Protein 1
Amino acid sequence: MLIKETWGNYLRGKFEENLDSLAIIDKSQNERYTYGELMIKSESIEKAFIGYGVTRGTHVALVLPGGAGWITTFLALINIGAIAVCLNNDTTDLEIRDRLLYSDSKIVITDEETYGKIKLHEEEIGLDLAVIVGGKDRYSEGICCDLSSFIEQGSGITETEIASARAKVRYDDILTIQYTSGTTGTPKAVMSVHYKVLSNMKLNSEVFKYTKEDKILSSLPMYHVMGCFFGCLMIFMSGGCLVLGGKFKTSKIIEALIEEKCTSFHGVPTMYKLIMNKMGDRVFPDLNKGMIAGSYCDAETMQAIIMDMGIKNMFPSYGQSEGCGYTQTSMEDSIEKIKTTVGRAIDGVEIKIVDDQLNTLVANTEGEILVKSEYRMSGYYKDEAATNKGIIDGWIHTGDLGKLDEEGYLKITGRKKDIIIRGG
């Protein structure tokens, strides 16, 4: 069932229920926020955005590491219906320039290191404002200011003005613009919708059975669906705590899992393999759940994760930026299904396997995976042709190869086209 509500409205209720509970532990910045503190911090940034003139539909680019600063700013934006343009900060100045130009982002939230790249093309991009998060100095010069100075500019915004800005946001507004990984050529800008992402995450959170007692460790990038949606948004729905590991470093992740008594880990197969290779005789007594997605994981690796890391409940899943989560395993599934498949289609999703002539194939036959989903994107930003090519008669052509068994469990077998994966 689709939940026709905005993320801002939904999360405010959850935050108010869990004001004194830990929401974020940011290991890289040594910061901790309760839900109450996170609400206060994000609202102060929200006021600054309102004071500057940011409103429903304004494109604001987030180009900074995925820590607590990223999350507080993101929450502020979605509360007032601004569109968060989520960009990879750990890339070249030219790629950042191109993404900012294409996305029509005139406001950027960034850090000092990344701003050095952006500044090279500032005039060409036509930036109006750059807010620097995490800097040591207070300053406001030209179009650039630090976060604290920016927040001060919104100190005079009233509760009435906040309520007015929030009231303009609709459940079917665009939530984010996130670039695809470029699996079929030039990366495309995916426009995700508030209520569709909310509904999808609600279903997935029910499968994971997270509660306010859970601590979930993630080092996944916030500019990606897995980090942003399956990381902070899904976890905040349950009132649990998100432990941010920063840029993935195996030894730091192992330490965080033990020190913070994490109950779950979200990662791609490579991350799990690196942990197992370096954990030695250390154990994770509190770790009982794990999400694994992003690329194919073989049965042997899955078996090793369950046995060596002691994770009783692994959740292989399959999805894309274009439609969030498509499939999910559950706690009730057999070990064999968990080791060899990515689960079955969740409610609101249909999957079929087709040949090159788009004929539907019988069970256990390899072909392209097509998906029809209630949660699919609004489209690719400024690229109607690519949208129409990728979605035909309501079916998303994923470009992935796979098989469905007689019970509807999906196995990923490859890609129709080769892909270069960077950073894990």
Protein 2
Amino acid sequence: MHTTLRIVLLLLAAIPVACGGAPVDSSAGKGPGPSPSSSSGSNPNGPSVGAGSASGTSSGSDLDGSSVDDSSDRSDSSSSSGPGSSSGAALDAAPDSPATPACSFASGLNVAWVNFASDVPNPDLATFKTIFKNTYAAGGRIVRWWFHTNGTVTPGYMSDGTVEPIPQAHIDGVTSILDAAHAAGVAIDLSLWSFDMLQGGEGITAALRTKNQNLLTQDSIRQSYIQNYLTPLVTALKGHPGLYSYEIFNEPEGMTQYGWTAGNGGAQVDESYIQKSLNWFAAAIHSADPSALVTNGSQVFQYCSNVNGNKNFYSDAALRSAGGKEKGTLDFYEVHYYTSNGTSNSCFTHPASYWGLDKKVVMGEFYAATTDGISQDETYSYLYTNGYDGAWAWAYESDQPWPSMQVPMQDLYAAHPGVGACP
């Protein structure tokens, strides 16, 4: 992965987790309700995301990733606290070994797809390779990519509503994307599901939306996804150098009582079902691959921090209590921020330490644009120097597309070349 021999210094950093909290006003919240065509199914106040093929050019020069690790100039903002107490019964054994430590700073960007919800089984590898090449050349090393998204293509359901056994073509499709990423010197944050699974529109039939809802709320359906699809996938990808982490959900709060999907002609579930599903899926991933990193893309800090009277929905204790599985916790937090979320949720007006989190925190979505007084070119460097553990701007092909994040990533790499040692 074009790392240096000193990557060990980066890996000494503590592992991260995901976030949760009090209700956010959906009218002010972001929900990159990525829709392949129009505003159908997207949060009206969020970025309008369009699918399409990536541009194949880059104005950036190639940056050599094999430089010395300078992570020692940046204090680790996370503490290595032990697992929280849980009132839920532990239904599985504690992991035999911990997950691989997350990077000290994971610099990168969102794809988030080439073809919305349908990159697998036949990914457009030429376009992915261009994106990966441009990311690496700018000093980025992690690319966030959405897999099932809304469930219109994968995973697939049987007539009784249970999830179909994973086809080899799906494993091959994901593997080919990871192979291309590794060949380019980057790795993938593989985001499994998005709030889109309960959206209105997006080609989601009422029958499919009900099946997606049942996957979240019915233990037998959820278990069928784990047994028939998720575990075989994780087993097949175990140890792949092109895989950085698994992300269970993109902005799951959007499909709860705190979100917007019901108002967009879709459905919703109680947040407790999100917590339980996250706990079960994370436990399954950690069981199949104890070294795997697991995270969750929370909409805002209001849902993943206890500051200002909010509640962290995704702490170890909260997830274990909801689902009962000891291994079902996050390894690092991933949070999103847009100015529509309000400065009280801003990563550009608060250092990472402000949120009082017990694990690393990556900013998994934000615009590489002047935000809350921080200039466009300084966005990545600001997050680095203020204690965050990664930056993945939204998004390569939409809203603030490439090359909006190119110079910010290059400037960060030039000042702190150790970020090139991730992962």
Protein 3
Amino acid sequence: MLHIGVIINFMDNSFLSDKINFDYYHFNFLEEEIVYQFFSKISYEIHINVSYEDINTISQLLKSAKTHDQLVLIESNNKIQILIRDICTALKQIFGADLKDDEVFINSIYLHLNSIMNRQIKEKTLENVYLADIKNKFPLLFEMGMSVKDIISKSLKCNLSEDEIGFLCLHIGAAYDRYIQNNNKLRVVLIIPFENSIVRNCIKKINQSFESKLTVIKIISYLDEPSIKYLDIDFIITTVSLQFSSKINIPVIEISTFVTSEDEYKIHKVILEFEQNQNYELINYLKHNYIKEELFYPHLSAETPEEIIKIMISYLEKSNYVDNKYINSVLEREKASHTSFHCGFAIPHSIYFNAKKTAISVAILNESIKWGTYTVKIVILLAVSEEDKDIFRIFIDFLGKIFNNSISSSKLLNSTNYEDFINNLI
């Protein structure tokens, strides 16, 4: 749908040539005819012109979505193949997300890169109405987009705007979500003693209701304690009462075979407890290793974002966390796109993982200041070394969840000292 929306915008702004007559055109595939019929119908509402290339491109995307095969078009474009490979390599190296085998991502990013080239040739730009939401609600995804900006700009010999980066983030975000769902789920053993249609429905309901949160790695009919001990699992779901002969430190959820709403609540509750424990462990780890009290400034006064960044980095430099060139990479990132958020925070950081040692410095401003689009009260400056680059991904993702929870972000924004700030992070 994103590609169709971009193409319609492209057409609606009269970027294409004169209308092409399809009366005598032979469609090779059903998907081509479907796409043509679609554009024909909406052309009654919006005056647009459609090209053979657009019909062929969208129809191939439809075909690939159905078969999960790579677009044939990619094979004929070596430059794009290399660029997509470089994008996947960068996302894996920086964020640990291996997307090279995600054909849906490969196909969609190919089509989008093609669209970027077409817009560059015609010297046209598109406004991204989703940009503010992407930056505020999905900061990690926007950082992913920023991380591949230079790779794409150099390959296509263009300067990508924030709007274009935002469009890229939509593709990257969908692929990253699929990657996380496939690799970061809680692992569960299901114990059900019988095999019948009711039991099969029970298994199906659990898989459907909790598909994004857990994966059932094994279904067994009885409690096999020796095997359970050596399985790498997070908890057990069972339809029968269990009696352990020895202590097994694994949560057990007893449900009915019919999986009622009460049963679903039990499972949701355990999942939530796991997530809360993970957050608690993360904050404790960050507190003891990176968010040091000596790098916390509860009463900082400055008039501009640049002045604040210079003050905070000067402290980091004196403590040997960064060198004297670090400030340039932070200001470079800030110039590319302001790191402020709608909820009153800013997270300035370098484009690169070039700190000597990782540190998270926090400043509470005496007076809020204008920082790009938004007004900022608390500044969280990140200095991340190459060996700790996973911390960047984890912490940015964690902050994004806080910023999108009005209660959590309000509590954090009202912090007055170091202990307040740490406690409000949890």
Protein 4
Amino acid sequence: MSVASCARFVAPTITDVTTWTYLSIANTVTRGSDPCFADYPTLGLDTHALYIGVNQFCGSGYEFYTSSGFVLHKATSLSGGTASVTLFSPLMNLTTYAGIYTPQGVDNYDANPAFGFFVGADGERYDRLNVVRIASPGTTTPSASAFPITVDAATAPPNVPVPGMPWPLDAIDHRLMNGVIRSGRLYTAQAIGVRQNGTTSGAGSLRAGVRWYQLDGLGTTPIVGKFGTIWDGAVSSPVHHWLPSVNVNAAGTLVVGYSVGGALLSPGARVSYRLMTDPQGELRAPTIVVSGASAAYNPYTPFYGYHRWGDYSMTSVDPADDTTFWTAQSYLKANHVYGTRAVQVSTPVPPVVEVSPSADKFGKQIRYADRRGIPYVWFPDDAGDTVKDIRSGEQVGADATTWTPPDTDLRPRVVAVTDSDEGAS
């Protein structure tokens, strides 16, 4: 790990004079006398600690053994001294593999939380998630409690075909790609296998879909509060959705970024979103992040019968305004070359308009709207209503029965792009 000299949880500023401190953790997990390799490290953080989850592979053949979680006391980690580290292992049953698989350290935006968290899929069942709650995370003696959570039936996502190619892309498995807490709720997402109707028991071929979750009751017994599925209901040659990551901004808007592809669609990426006020399980229509090129992807003959694809999926909220999203996803860029594209995503904010109840509240309502990312404030008046765009300062007369915000404030927009070549995988 590397820690910037400006490190803090909200809005760090990295410049050309920033210095870095490097930290390492010794993996002391063994299987008998066999040392273990800590694979697929994840990172979450809050105001108290850093949470690193790993899968452990052990022995000369590096067989999967269990999962582990490291909790780093944040004050000692950022001080430049020796970090205080607590290891929790094993986090799974060593015979059945029930328990948290690929534990994701959870980012928590809430101030001074009582607990830290890992979240993950289950190593034994597809219809179960696991939360590991860390008590006393701000001390050097934290403790852990595990909570299995039953979810809707699921199965492993199938590998994803590439147009005209003999080998598919690896859908990885049902692991979660990240976890984030906002206002006491934990949000996460995974790829699963579904049929034409979006469940595991319907007709049609198996295709990869994305399921997102909102977990409630984090301080008592975690439960599923809301969830939804993104899938293609085509009878044949469906579009697959996989490798999802999720985040939530200050207004409660949720954005999911993910890969898409199939027998008739080159690998690309999309985002879907929902407003805090949307009905249970509903996501708005997806927006294309990047379309895959009409190109070949068979850089070599794969040993396991499929090509590994990315694992590059990250969706975050811009700390500059706590409203705008960024997502980074993989896509097919050219023959046998994949790229990673990072885009800035602007979404509508619920509500789009804040109403000021009286003249003496005008300034207060503008400040309130600005803090929440609400772009318009409505001013009722006997002489005629007006609406103010607080971004530009423009204030115009408006009729409440006919006025609507511009289309760009009602739908997500990809407004900036960075790109990189990654080569073959």
